[in-house]
Structures are given as structure tokens and as C-alpha cells.
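User: Fold this; C-alpha cells only.

Assistant: Input:
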Amino acid sequence: MANKINVKLILELRNAGMGRNAIAASRHISKNSVGDVFHIADRMGISYGDVAQMDEDAVYRKFYPEKFTLEDMYDRPDYEYVHQELKRTGVTLKLLWQEYQDRCRASGGIPVGYTKFCQGYSDYTVVNKLTNHLEHKPGTSVEVDWSGPSMNYIDISTGESVPVYLFVGTLPYSQYSYVEPCLDMKMDSFLRAHIHMYEFFGGIATRLICDNLKAGVVSHPKEGEVILTDEYEALGSHYQTAIMPAGVRKPKQKASVEGTVGKIATSIIARLRNEVFYSFQGLKDAVSQKLHDFNHGSFQKREGSRYGAYLDEKPFLHPLPAIPYEISTWVYGRKVNVDYHVVFEYNRYSCPYQYARRSVDLKVTDSTVEIYSGDTRIATHNRFPAGRRNQYSTHPEDMPDQFRFSPWDDARIRSWAKSIGSYTALAVDRIFEGVAIKEQGYNPALAVLRLGNKYSEARLEAACEFAITSGIKKPRYHHLSSILASNQDEIYMERKKAGENAHPPMGYLRGSSYYGGGSDGQ
């Protein structure tokens, strides 16, 4: 009940010997209100001893029954419903009061005013020991930042101290937090920490509030549009969250994470200050344990823990996408070969044959290679593991069908090779024998044949003969190019004319017979 006189307290102080003026001054109650209570008590013959065992509302009702009658005229709002609705995005006390008014009028009741409605909700949260979450709604935002204080571990191979930086993310409503140690604060580390943070929270907030760091924000003018880095904007699009950098030099716009950074300094960094770590993983494990203790520890100024509040907030988070965001790099202006494959890290990835001899762009992640023509993605492949070379990833649908004319085919290439000589034809045949589909042999075979344009067809034939007779079962461009550049083909032909049937293998030219294996000389 709002703005009522504390009758019981006035009677208690009067019983203790305090006068009207002293009670009014010490308790900040008007003299008229204190005098009114004195007058009613004297008229009704009531002393403090008569009401000492009664609660405050009952005493007030005894002195002012007409005011209680007036209070009972109003429909009492359902403040439990109000408290739950305020957690939802966009819901305010003003909106709930208007809806309450509409329900009262529809049922013929009398609604309380807005001021009384708000005061009643405030009293409800105090009586029920609830936190009034008017400032932060569940699932609305997450705030991220780098911790100022850093940590370190000892590299046992060098004995050097390696600095470690802490990425911090906080849900303002529950104060539930995520901390990840990183070896640097560069773009890849920054983005990966976001990905891991969303997985840790098990959902996505509507807004992502960050600082104006270079890894995420290109420019943040006082007026005009904020420009994010391409990578950060792509992450926001993937998780369907609005990235909203805080104002420049306005830390209060991300006060939750700023406060958490300070608490992290005490709860994690300070508690681990006397421990020495000899590996990055060991430091990460220790931070993870202290973070668990931090989130599950009790609040200082309210009941429960961050984890308990997070369980209430989690249903309001948006679900994670089926596929986590993958950090990508772009490679621009790659030429599509005549065999409609693009080379990346010595491996070949197919795209539709119509794009042969055109330039395309590659979007490369840890697991995929995507091929783009302009803004259109024309092919996607699983990326070959590091260290693999001369592998082909070919989609059957990328190959030309039998009804379309291709500028090159295996028959035409074999015919060209045969016109140069039998050993050149044999070298090309063996190239085609070593591929899964004939189109994969186009580029390496043509590379060999074009050596005839540079050095002459006669020398190419001699180089192929020398390579094959020297133990290289499947000569490729790099074998033959080395032979021609060092004139080994001419030396071989001179010796052959002179009748020298035996000649040792030349220096670096070693075929499979040299190693005692059965593989080709690739």
C-alpha cells in the first residue's frame, strides 16, 4: 500500500516518550500526520500496548478504515505476471500498465494509476526478494571485451615467458560469463573466441556489444554508419545478431563486461597469480576451473548465482545455427584451367566447365574451399588436409556432357603427342593412366606438350626418351623441364649417337628404380 502513514511506529515512539515534533523530525513524517494519529488514538482510547501484536496493515486499517475501503475499489495488478513479462524483448512497465487498464475496463473494474502501478511492482520485488530487471532483459544482449590484465606461461623449450590475453563475454541479465585465454588479440583469435563463447552459452543474444577494437570495427564516426570489418560482419550475419559497438570512450555502454573484467582479475588472475604454468593448455585448464567457480559462486548483493540466473535466461537466447561459423580467407583472381579445375595449395578443385579460362575467387575455411564467380558461389569442396599435393576434387556435374564440344579432349591431346614422337606419346599415355577421370589429365599433359613450343618438338621427344629410360615411369612437367633446361637431352642424344649404351643417371634425376620402389617418378 503506497504512501500510507506508519501508525504503529508513531504509537511506539509516543509510548517511548517522544513528542509530536520529535517524531516528525526524526522519521521525516509531517507534523499534521503525526498529530492526526495522536488525535485518533486519544479519541478511540488506543495505546501502543493495544496494537503491539498487530501487523502494520491491520493497525492502519483500524485507524483509517475508509482509506482501505477506497483501496479495495481498485483491481489489484498481477505483479507475478508483470515480473515474468518484463523479461521479454520490448516489454515495458508502461505497456503492461496499458494492457492492465484495458483488461480492467473490459471486466468493469477500476485500474490504478501508472505511478501506483510502478510503486506496487517495486514493493512486490522487495517483498519477494527479486531483482528488478528493468535495465537488462534476458537474451537481449551479450557484451565482449579483452581483459586489461594478462597472464603468462613458461615455454619449456626456450624458457621464455609467453603472454596470454583473456577474452571475456558476459550476458548482462544473468552476469553469466565466458573467459578464453588467447595467445594474441588478432582477428582469428578474436573470431574464434566468439564462436566458442556462443557454444558455451548454448545460444545467441539479439545484440552483440563490443569495444571499438581494430579487429572488429573499421570506423565509428560520431555521425553516420558504423563500419565493421568484413570478417566481423560475416560472423554477425551467420549468427543473426546485431553487432553494436559501444560509443568511443563510453565504457558505461558495456558496463556489464567492464565490471566482469574487474571481477575476473580477482576471481581468476589474482587467484592463479602464485601458480606457474609450463604449457598453454595447462593455463587454459586452470582458467576454465576458476571460471566455473566464478559462475557458480553466490552473488554478493542478491540471492542465487550467475549460473542459476543463466538457467532462467537461457530459454530467451536464440538457438545456435546447425553449422558453426568458420573463419575464412579470400583468394582473388585465380584462373580456371582448361580442365575446369582451380589450383589451391598444389591441389585442384573443379567448377562448372563453362568457367574454363575465366578468373574466379576462392573462399577458404579450415574445412572447405568455395569457388565464386562475382557474387555467385559456383562450387564447394572439402579442403584437402595440409601436406597433400596434386590431389583432385572433382564433382561429376562439373564435367561437360558428351553432347557439348570441349576445346580439348584426350584423343586430341594423345594425337598431338603421337605426332611428336613415340616416347612423348608414351609419357602422355602414362599421365592419363594415373588419373581417375580423363579430364584430370588435360592440364598436366598439355603442360608437357607445350615444352615443344619452347625447346622444339625434337628436344621434347629426346627428353621424354631420356626420362623414361632413366627410370621415371611417369614423367611430368617438372621432370622434363629440368632435363631440357640443363641440356641433358642433348647430352643423351650425343652419347646415343656415339654408341654409348650405358650411362649413369644424371645427378638429381632419380626414378622409382633408384629408390627400389614401384611408384612412379612424380
